[in-house]
Design goal:
Elements: H1 2-11, H2 17-30, H3 45-53, H4 71-76, H5 79-97, H6 100-122, H7 148-153, H8 160-165, H9 181-192, H10 197-205, E1 209-214, E2 217-222, E3 227-229
Antiparallel strand pairs: 1-2, 2-3
Helix pairs in contact: 3-6, 5-6
């Protein structure tokens, strides 16, 4: 996970890993209500667009995991690293392509595309009236968008209604009719990391939950402090089979 974080932030889009985990957990704890750093229920399109760049201030810290306190993550979360990493990615792209205008268009274009992806997750899937709801959870506005393009672009994160109803589940599709590109991606990653099933699985749910050993099983502490238990011991965990009791 440390290698993926450093490589992604150095060669791709930069994301502060510690701040993102904390915002995501707070989002699940306060979804669409005060305390949610992503969007409040009454926030419109332009306000949410602004919040994608400048989110609400986080008033709590839910990112105290041991791995997030490691040197790797602390360096990756440093503003100096953020600037150097993005400068390096631009310079490397320029040297590989050799056409500055093309690099400028592509470099900024990718970030505009990422902003659109963020809006899918923060605005369109958290504004009632768009898409559909599988679960009528009144405490949030989470919706599902099931079209192939947004599902592929967001790695299934646009299935927000499913995700908020069962935040501890690895797969975000809850019906055979739902296309789940994110789950397909994790299965492909698993094929390259044989023997590391639990590590890959935990990486997917780690943003909104933390694992605590509990009598041969693993308890999942979700963002709101709610405890759930995996129905299988860690040694038998398999992709897509997380069920909470």
């Amino acid at each position: 996970m440390k290698v993926v974080t450093v490589v992604n932030n150095s060669f791709g889009l930069y994301v502060d890993p510690i701040a993102w985990v904390n915002r995501h957990r707070l989002h699940h704890k306060h979804a669409d209500h005060p305390g949610d750093p992503n969007k409040l229920s009454d926030d419109g399109f332009w306000r949410t667009l602004f919040l994608c760049v400048m989110p609400y201030q986080c008033n709590d810290n839910l990112a105290g995991d041991e791995i997030l306190e490691s040197w790797t993550f602390r360096i990756a979360a440093n503003p100096v690293f953020a600037i150097l990493a993005q400068a390096f990615s631009f310079y490397l792209f320029w040297k590989l392509v050799g056409d500055l205008k093309f690099v400028l268009v592509m470099w900024f274009g990718i970030r505009i595309f990422a902003l659109w992806v963020n809006m899918i997750q923060n605005y369109w899937t958290h504004t009632r009236g768009f898409a559909y709801r599988r679960y009528e959870d009144e405490e949030d506005n989470a919706m599902n968008i099931g079209e192939w393009l947004p599902v592929t672009a967001t790695f299934s994160a646009c299935l927000q209604n499913n995700h908020h109803h069962y935040p501890g589940l690895l797969r975000l599709s809850h019906d055979k009719s739902e296309y789940d590109f994110g789950f397909v991606t994790v299965k492909v990653m698993k094929s390259f990391l044989k023997g590391a099933t639990s590590e890959v699985s935990i990486a997917r749910i780690g943003a909104c939950a933390r694992l605590v050993p509990s009598h041969g099983r693993h308890r999942v502490r979700l963002a709101g402090g709610v405890d759930n238990h995996f129905s299988m011991p860690k040694a038998k965990m398999r992709l897509g089979h997380f069920r909470c009791n």
